[in-house]
């Protein structure tokens, strides 16, 4: 049985610096939702990374 594999090079996205939020701004409360979304995105990425790591370990143990 032959299995053909190909390597794919993924380029990282261009990093765009974030603007800092001034704590003295009156509309800071509105930005709370943004930080909550950021935290959710980080948790999702961590979960995906854990799944990829587990898949790599399973494939290496074969």
Give the tags:
mainly alpha, elongated, 62 residues
- Extract low-pLDDT stretches: none
Strand share of the residues?
under 5%
The main pleated sheet reads as: none
What distance lies between the first and last C-alpha atoms, to the nearest angstrom?
16 Å
Order of helices and strands: H
Total helical segments? 1
Report the structural category. mainly alpha
Q: List how many beta strands DSSP finds.
A: 0
How would you characterize this protein structure?
This protein is mainly α and 62 residues long. It has a domain at 26-61. 48% of the residues lie in helices and 0% in strands. The protein contains one helix and no strands. The protein has one helix at 32-61. It starts with 31 loop residues before the first helix and ends with a helix. The mean pLDDT is 73.
């Amino acid at each position: 049985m032959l299995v053909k594999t190909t390597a794919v090079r993924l380029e990282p996205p261009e990093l765009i610096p974030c603007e800092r939020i001034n704590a003295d701004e009156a509309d800071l409360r509105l930005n709370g939702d943004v930080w909550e979304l950021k935290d959710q995105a980080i948790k999702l990425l961590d979960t995906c990374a854990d799944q990829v790591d587990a898949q790599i370990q399973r494939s290496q143990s074969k």
